[in-house]
Amino acid sequence: MVGTILAFIAGLALAGVTFWISGGGLLGLGASAVVAVLGYVGVSYLTAPERKIGQLLASAIPNGQQAADTLDRARSCVDDMQRLIARTLDPQVRKEADDIVVATGSLIRFVEANPSSYDTLRHFINVYGGQSLKLLRGYVDVEHAGAPDQTERAKAETIEALQVLEKTAAGELSHAVESKRLALSADSDAIVRLASMDGYTADQETAGGYAAGGNTAGGHKAGGYVAGGYASGGNDDHGKEQA
After folding, report:
1. Helix (H) or strand (E) holding 215
2. Which residues make beta-bridge pairs with 225?
3. Which residues of 167-195 are buried (b: 16+ CB within 10 A; e: fewer)?
4. Which residues contact 201 (CB under 8 A, 6 or more apart)?
5. Torsions phi, psi of 111, nearest 5?
């Protein structure tokens, strides 16, 4: 709101200056109008709040603006569905529709935490979002028409479709998480390969020199000190050995 007011004031100010500089007349009026529009648009852009995805600025994330747009569309779709659910009378249909809202919400939260996965959410909203709203809106219209026989048939068909949609949303979330896991596996394999090139493996403990019950870096091995002259329960210092 503040940005809009500032943009309007800036546009008027620039228009006034332009009109005065141009000497008035029709030419000055036309130039003032053009400058006013450009000033309004420019100041609006400069004063627009930075969009965020979670705690991150959208501009700081690869494809951040596309991800933010997708999240906005998904939230709007969920809001529209919740309004339709509020008008639905049948409790079973309401429950199935609520399940879709929950599943979609989980997908939204995952994309908020992992903006690079926005393509999955965009696909779901583009393909199924509008269809979900159309389905539920149609059922509400039939339900409120006052024809019990048609309402029962519509109920069965709607519940079947809503169950499929809920499974689809859950499946899309699973695919998004799978992509994240595969990326994690690739990073893990790369680390293991690099470490093996330096002679380290996962079943080795070399950081502190400990191996198989002793400390070889400090001379400790298998229950005794070999570097300081102790070995396996005895003291070999100065050629003495304890039985």
Report:
1. strand 214-215
2. 220
3. ebbbebbeebeeeeeeeeeeeeeeeeeee
4. 195
5. -70, -35
200 Ramachandran zone, left/alpha/beta (phi>0; psi -120 to 50): beta
Specify the pLDDT at position 235: 45
Q: Among 46, 45, 77, 71, which Cα is nearest to 58's?
A: 71
C-alpha dihedral sign at 36, 39, 42, 45:
negative
Per the CB < 8 A criterion, the answer to whether 103 and 166 are in contact is yes
Q: Which helix (H) or strand (E) holds 220?
A: strand 220-221
Where are the alpha helices (H) located in 22-147, listed in sequence order?
Answer: 25-47, 64-87, 91-113, 118-124, 130-143
Q: Are 85 and 94 in contact (CB under 8 A)?
A: yes
- Tens digits of per-residue pLDDT, 7-38? 557 656 766 677 677 766 666 667 667 766 77
Contact criterion met (CB below 8 Å) for 10 and 39: yes
Query: In the prediction, which pLDDT does 66 show?
Result: 80
Taking CA atoms, 188 is separated from 59, 134, 207, in Å, by 29, 44, 19
Distance CA(72)–CA(165), nearest Å, equals: 20
First-to-last alpha carbon distance for the chain, in angstroms, is 91
CA 204 to chain CA centroid, nearest Å: 37
pLDDT digits (tens, 9 = 90+) for 156-183: 999 999 999 999 998 998 888 887 788 7
Whether the model pTM is above 0.70: no
Query: Which residue reads 């210092």 in tokens?
Result: 237
Which of the residues in the chain have pLDDT under 50? 206-243
